[in-house]
């Protein structure tokens, strides 16, 4: 009888942890910006880590907390346009901030 209680307790605890984890994940979203090299509101550096820090500071100053950031080459933004660099900035933010970040020329990204 005691083992049944322990198993039942473990199942309840596991269920709580899984529900809490899924809830936290679902309130985040990814957004992207195709870097132009001409019109950014942040300083573009030769080292991605420094550019990432500049973007985080810029977004924070606009009330957007960044949970993850990536800068990578994007096949759709091949760098052949007038100001395109061929790099894409991707940021993970709170979903409720998608409206704010879209006003900063970022677009929602399915990821």
What would you say this structure looks like, in words?
The chain is α+β, with helices and mostly antiparallel strands. It has a single domain, classed as Alpha-Beta Plaits (2-Layer Sandwich), CATH 3.30.70. Helix content is 40%, strand content 22%. It starts with a helix and ends with a strand.
Q: Write the CATH architecture name.
A: 2-Layer Sandwich
Number of strands: 4
| Main pleated sheet | 4 strands, antiparallel
Helix share, percent: 25-40%
Domain count, please report it. Answer: 1
Low-confidence stretches: none
Quote the CATH topology. Answer: Alpha-Beta Plaits
Strand order of the largest sheet: 2-3-1-4
Which percent band covers the strand fraction? 15-25%
Sheet/helix structural class: alpha+beta
What's the number of helices? 3
Would you state the CATH class?
Alpha Beta
Give a brief outline of the structure:
It contains three helices and four strands; from the N terminus they run αβαββαβ. The chain has 111 residues and is of the alpha+beta class.
């Amino acid at each position: 009888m005691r083992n049944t209680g322990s198993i039942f307790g473990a199942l309840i605890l596991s269920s709580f942890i899984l529900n809490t984890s899924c809830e936290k994940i679902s309130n985040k979203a990814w957004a992207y910006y195709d870097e132009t090299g001409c019109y950014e509101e942040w300083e573009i550096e030769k080292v991605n880590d420094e550019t990432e820090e500049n973007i985080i500071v810029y977004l924070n100053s606009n009330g957007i907390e960044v949970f993850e950031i990536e800068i990578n080459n994007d096949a759709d933004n091949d760098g052949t346009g007038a100001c395109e660099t061929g790099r894409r900035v991707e940021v993970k933010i709170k979903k409720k901030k998608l409206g704010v970040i879209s006003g900063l020329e970022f677009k929602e990204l399915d990821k």
